[in-house]
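#struct-help
A.M.: can someone run this one for me? Single chain, 97 residues.
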Amino acid sequence: MEESSGYWRGLVTGVIVGAAAALLLTPKKGDELRHELADGASKLKDKAGTLGEKAGELKERGVEALHNLRGDAEDALAGTLEDAGEIAGEMNESESA
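D.P.: on it. Structure tokens below:
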């Protein structure tokens, strides 16, 4: 039982000493620190919003580019199939003759 109480006594002492050291070594007052943290959080929120907008724009551009590529690929495939059909027709004519 004494080992357990020694552990808890050491833990509580460590927490108190750590808190006191943090208070003594903090270069700014609590109000200043909270204000700076709030400003930093606000700036971070603004940057996240800007990044979200840019991501949305990039997504739209990517979707448009994919649609354009798909259209180009469909046109190229249609042209190739047309050419293949003509070649096949010419081959059939030459075999018939």
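A.M.: thanks! The mean pLDDT is 85.
D.P.: also worth noting: DSSP finds two helices and no strands in the chain.
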